[in-house]
């Protein structure tokens, strides 16, 4: 199976603050000779409300403006998860997009496994 997928990489960064100033967590360039890649996993956790307001941006191939910019809470169908009406629900039973995207903990935590293909320009 690994030969069908090709080389993979990953980066786990623990303990960085979620703040107003953007921070680069992963900076990856395709290897020489590669023509395409796939972003296939995203996971975050943090304090309630704070992680719900997190923004994630993907800058592909050195672009100045991100191709993809999202809040995991909105992407996973939870929208304003910090509002009082949301707090009344059982957080572990909340909507998620099948097994590919959602929230699976009572306090903070989002995942996404939708594949995002990209090519080298």
Please give a structural write-up.
The chain has 121 residues and is mainly beta. The chain has a domain at 49-116. 10% of the residues lie in helices and 18% in strands. It has helices spanning 2-5, 72-75, 84-87; strands spanning 36-39, 42-44, 56-58, 68-70, 101-102, 110-112, 116-119. A hairpin with a 7-residue loop joins strand 5 and strand 6. The chain is globular. It starts with a helix and ends with a strand.
Strand order of the largest sheet: 2-6-5
**Alpha-beta content class:** mainly beta
Alpha carbon gyration radius: 16 Å
Average pLDDT works out at 72
Taken in chain order, the helices and strands follow as HEEEEHHEEE
Shape: globular
Helix tally? 3
Q: How many E strands?
A: 7
Could you give the distance between the termini?
27 Å
| Helix proportion range | under 10%
Q: Tell me the strand percentage band.
A: 15-25%
Residue windows where pLDDT falls under 50 for at least 5 positions: none
The description of the largest β-sheet is: 3 strands, antiparallel
């Amino acid at each position: 199976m690994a030969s069908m997928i090709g080389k993979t990489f990953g980066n786990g960064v623990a303990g960085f603050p979620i703040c107003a100033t953007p921070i680069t967590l992963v900076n990856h360039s395709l290897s020489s000779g590669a023509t395409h890649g796939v972003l296939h996993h995203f996971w975050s956790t943090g304090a309630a409300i704070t992680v719900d307001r997190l923004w994630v941006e993907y800058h592909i191939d050195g672009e100045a403006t991100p191709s993809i910019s999202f809040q995991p809470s909105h992407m996973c169908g939870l929208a304003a998860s910090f509002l009082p009406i949301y707090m009344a629900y059982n957080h572990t039973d909340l909507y998620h997009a099948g097994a590919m995207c959602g929230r699976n903990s009572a306090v903070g935590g989002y995942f996404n496994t939708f594949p995002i293909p990209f090519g080298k320009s």
